[in-house]
UniProtKB/TrEMBL annotation, chain B:
Superkingdom, taxonomy of origin: Bacteria
Keyword Cytoplasm: no
InterPro entries to which the protein is assigned, alphabetical: MetI-like (IPR000515), MetI-like_sf (IPR035906)
Localisation per UniProt entry: Cell membrane
Membrane-spanning residues: 48-67, 111-132, 139-162, 168-186, 222-245, 265-284
Bilayer disposition of the protein: Multi-pass membrane protein
Region Disordered, residue ranges: 18-44
Keyword Metal-binding (UniProt): no
Organism: Paenibacillus helianthi
Name this protein carries in UniProt: ABC transporter permease
Major subcellular site: membrane
Automatic annotation (TrEMBL), chain C:
Predominant location category: membrane
Taxonomy, superkingdom: Bacteria
Family membership: Belongs to the binding-protein-dependent transport system permease family.
Residue stretches making up the ABC transmembrane type-1 domain: 60-246
Subcellular locations according to the entry: Cell membrane
Short name of one Pfam family: BPD_transp_1
Top-level taxonomy: Bacteria, Bacillati, Bacillota, Bacilli, Bacillales
Listed name of the protein: ABC transporter permease
PROSITE patterns linked: ABC_TM1 (PS50928)
Species assigned in the record: Paenibacillus helianthi
Topological relation to the membrane, as annotated: Multi-pass membrane protein
Record field: transmembrane: 5-27, 64-84, 96-117, 123-142, 179-202, 222-242
Keywords: Cell membrane, Membrane, Transmembrane, Transmembrane helix, Transport
Amino acid sequence: MLVNPTWMKESNRYARTCVMLYNINKKIKSDSGVKGELDMSLVAARIPEIQLQNVEMRYQTDTADVLALHQVSLDIAKGEFVSLLGPSGCGKTTLLRLMADLITPTGGDVTVAGKSAREARLAQKYGIVFQSPVLYDWRKVKHNITLPLELMGVKKSIREDKALELLDLVGLQGFADKYPWQLSGGMQQRVAIARALSMEPEILLMDEPFSALDEFTRERLNEELLSVWNKVQSTIVFVTHSIPESIFLSDRVFVLSPHPGRLSAIVDIPLPRPRTAEMRNSPQFFELIAHIRDSFEGV
Amino acid sequence: MESNTTVRDIPFIASSGKEAATAPITSTNNEITTDPDKRRSPRRPSKWLNPGVILPLLAGVLFLILWEVQVFHKLFDLKKYQLPLPSAIAEAIRDHFSLLLSYTGYTLTEAVVGMLIGSACGLLIALAATAWPRWGGGSLTLVAALNAVPIVALAPIMNLWFGDGIGSRAAIVTATTMAAMAINAYKGMAAVDPLALDLMHSYAAGKPAVFRYLRIQNSLPYVFTALKINATASMIGAIVGEFFFSSRGLGYLLSNSIKVAKMPLGWSCIVLAAIAGVLFYLIVERLEKVFIKWHSSQRS
Amino acid sequence: MRDRVLPLFVWIFGLLVVWEAVSWWLLNVAKTPLAQSKLPYVHEVAATLWKYSGTLLKEGGATFGNAGVGFLIGAVAGVVLAVLMSLSKTIEQLAFPYAVASQMIPILGLAPIIYGIVRDEQVSRIIISGYITFFPVALNMLRGLRSVDLPAVELMHSYAAKPWAVYWKLRFPAALPGLFSGLKIAAPLAVTGAILVELMGAQHGIGVIMLRNLYYGPSHTYMFWSTVLVGALLGMASYWLMSLVERLVAPWQPEFRPKGGSR
């Protein structure tokens, strides 16, 4: 991570938040006895890419008033990989959709890349990957990938080059001219990731992208996602209900609990990078799993 | 099977017709809300103030008024003897009410008889095609091809075979309703959950038992879809059949009135045919509700 | 492939054999009056079809052409109405009940009335064919436009796509299967409508020679049956044509994928 002095000045207020987070972390760690250190200078140097302040989300259904999210405040730093983890109904997907400006909160502020969520969407600051690949059946793989570029009016030759480059990145060389149905579920999801990366976004929002895949495919794609992240250096917000997946991928895990949906813990993942498949079997990994599981039971 | 697709899609029309007929207010509005920003607003205060009812009603009344004050006549340069006024049509209905009623009954009889025979034949073909897929499948294709044959070409032949009584129209209707039933029922019997089929096998159930406990039950929603399609198709078949070789019925009266330039009477035939067609459809739909309470399309 | 084609050919062949046999039986054993009119020999009909193929082709072409023009106009109007209904709730509320009701009404019954109003065979053929095409196309196209699932729309929303782009890149392609099922329902109906008008009085078309040969009586029975067959073939051809166009325009649909193998 770069340490840029001008950023440090700007992010005074952010530093305070970080101290707060640090305290929370320290508390969690002292509670559970997990060893881990937070490098303060490093955290303070990060500027917030996504910031949520007192966000509240209410739904009106025919029968009841549902409070989906209650007073959620969080910061995600530039270049960070964070997971939103929780059981179904905890509002983790809602939270992601707020960041994507697919829904508007009923209270609080959402700031994405220094702009309001809406402006960030209009400026194409993020790419999004849904639970299902959402590929358009009538488009070949390469044309699915270049869809956002097409909408932005990028020239065709540039688009085609970009598609090939991205297919290379996600390990799907030679599939450019196939139709989506000719690909397996895992491959389709990789196409969806390539599509999300096509306009080189600062942020990647991923809503349980691998939850429909089998365990083996999922673990392989986890590793591939990290290597892609390593190359593109974007901020990733990853929604999941799998504790091991969140630990393996993330720098930090935001633990959410339901009724009403709220942020109940933030857990640092001190596993070194680059992460390897062997780490899944390390004692530290299991300790983290136990720790996060505890934080659910405490709720 | 290529021809499968002809009838495969007709159910939509039938089912949407069903929705609109039973609950025109809610179902026409229940599109997926595609705009994620849109929140669902609390529902209407009164059923009759709903635009879903008011708007088409108003439009219909407006249309009739414009017609009555001869706006269309001026617009398209038509004479009153070409396009009779609604009041004249209403008068024709009043004047010939008993005749029209008996002819409607006659035409409806042809339609119902033909539809029952045709649907029964279609069902048998579907059963055969399901039981012996390799050889029965060919019959499905042939029946689907029959579906594309213009009804009007059938009329003279059926007339030769069955004379000019009810029989020939019933035969036309039979021919036109067979395909929809055969293809839909086949789809219903074939589209059985493979696991449900495995369950039957685990019970060591033979072919007849699989049909009795599983396939026929499973095909019922499809069968009723076909019956609804056929309700409409049978009215068309009967009326068109009467155009050429008949001395009774709405179709006969219709084409005859046009020939002797009694336009209002011709129009009154159309009005009655429309009413009969809708009634027939609604009755079939009512039966569907009685017979398949368990199906998801019947849950609110 | 062979598994399906072979039984079909056996069926067709068997049907023709039974036809020929019954025809012979009616003529020589049962000695029914007008036996050849009721069920003529297949070989005689085939010979007539061959002999008069020029005339039949020309008149059939006239029918097909008129039906086609009406069909195209009706289809375009149907698509436009469907798009309007998908864009505006008011238009939908106005038109949808009538579109649905029109499906329950014997539309073809209108043929004599329209002929009575227009008194022009060309125009009334086109109007009837267009009218018959209009509603199935509009309803199925509307269903297609609506069939787009929410995540696909959200994806467009996340790209900040303009409304026209959402239609052009997403809703229209997604609606193509619906549109084609409407077109495939409507195409044989349009041909039927055109023939119906011809039977009521026209100069050209397969319906005209059908009627003429019917009135000439038993001596023209083979020609009459030939016209019936041509009419049937026109109906089927219109359907096949639509299926072909569908394969070319929207080849990605599940039905067109090779079975087995990939799964």
